[in-house]
Amino acid sequence: xxxxxVYTKNIGKVYKKNYDKDLSSFKNEFEPIFIECCKVLPADIxxxxxxxxxxxxxxxxxxxxxxxxxxxxxxxENYDVENDPFTKExxxxxxxxxxxxxxxxxxxxxxxxxxxxxxxxxI
Length: 123
What we know:
By secondary structure, the chain is mainly α. About 70% of the residues lie in helices and about 0% in strands. The protein has 7 helices and no strands.
């Protein structure tokens, strides 16, 4: 199963179990789920990405959690360019991650991500 689907399924379980509570108070349960699913990067970088996309996001907490599914799809080379959900600031951060972690991603994945950004007119 694709890691993006595993991620969505696992955060859905936490959400359903705690549907009547403030989800942001369960950040400690959600972060390890993302780190486990983001296998292309070391845990410390995945943790930084989680913080940037969820903790420091302008989006609602639940929306920010689910937006990480799109990032995992990008890493899986299965990104939907037609329905690009990322803001310009998020793409800037993604570019920084790519530049700083090129060795972690591998050449084919870097090429794919750069092509997506080129298709979107971001580079």
